[in-house]
């Protein structure tokens, strides 16, 4: 295998054309196909043997000494040439239609998964998963992205590398300095997640990480120089709870401590793993507590916020997390079809969701996080950040599955132009009917009237859209986000 040596350079200056057609620059969404019935068709996948990873429009190929992904080297200065780095949680999703979901008992589920893995499905049903969802959504918004994680030297790993390359996303392999990767050892293989759909459209998930007491890549004990350089060169390090399925708590803690040391902002989305981490091993509990104290931005669902604080009201739960955080600037609570809330130490911003026809919610949360990173980097008003995050999440929900099926920029632009909010005044009044009088509350509204409405400062969605669209449309032409 051949891997690129990346030389990080600032992007060249760009001169905007006087006119352009946004729709002509659209990257078409992948066509949704019917899922195969198990047993799947054997794969004839022939990946590109010379993956090239692009960074700021430049690329090169080098022959590493031992032919592994982990020889990718950075030659760089201290500039933060990446907008976003993701940590761990790189996997391949294999989506299959099955007559029935796997049985509940772990031994039976393990046997079921092994049976699936014995006959790999056609590559049409492979998709990039995990943190790839967030990275792809961010790259489509024009952010410069690098994924930090481990993939194996096999067909699944090469497939994942090709997907990232095609999306313009760089990659740094995780291993210790001078660590030799044993490609024949199953613990070094790319992590697969079997996404199983029964005739009633219910979902089941199987991964080898489900059946191990140790993280999938427990052989990693410390950060390599290349990983540290990638973190140092990124404005944001995005982490989520699923990273604990792959990496040890101590390794994850060392990554966030290093990010804080070198001035990289930390985003953390605990996801469903947050609850199990809070009652997990002492090492997991300490790592979770470290994340909650050290993260600049926390992103949770209302249920996750309640499970971590014991407070049902999402605004009060967010304020409690802010009080406990040492570096926390934003706590964002995702509330699905209702919308989202962003809480700071001095304000509360609320944005109803956009009305869309939902096809699949997989990847919506990751897409939402990508758009929050966009707003954070560009120092957008908080209500504007929520508006674009809701739009990107909703656009992903209109498609089928995640990975390359997450929202495209044109879909986001069209959704924002329509500005069809799912505004439910009674629901929001009930939610905010707490002792919040001392807080500044900003509410995104379709009423078309800016100003005070009851206890809220209403901001017209058309005004917010008019501020966001020029930046999004310009991103199509510029090819990357201005620093």
CATH architecture: 3-Layer(aba) Sandwich
- The residue fraction in helices comes out at 25-40%
Q: Give the strand line-up of the largest sheet.
A: 7-6-3-10-11-12-13-14-15-16-18-17
Structural class label: alpha/beta
Mean pLDDT equals 79
The figure for the number of domains is: 1
CATH superfamily: Ribokinase
Any low-confidence stretches, pLDDT <50, length ≥5? 1-77
- Summed up, the helix count is 14
- Form type: globular
Name of the top-level CATH class:
Alpha Beta
Pfam families: PfkB (PF00294)
Domain Carbohydrate kinase PfkB: 123-402
InterPro entries: PfkB_dom (IPR011611), Ribokinase-like (IPR029056)
Biased composition (Polar residues): 16-25
Could you please describe the fold and organization of this structure?
The protein has 483 residues and is of the alpha/beta class. It has one domain: 3-Layer(aba) Sandwich (UDP-N-acetylmuramoyl-L-alanine:D-glutamate ligase), CATH 3.40.1190. Helices cover 33% and strands 19% of the residues. The chain is built from 14 helices and 18 strands. Helix 2 packs across helix 10, helix 5 packs parallel to helix 7 and helix 11 packs across helix 14. The protein starts with 5 loop residues before the first strand and ends in a 5-residue tail after the last helix. The N terminus is likely disordered.
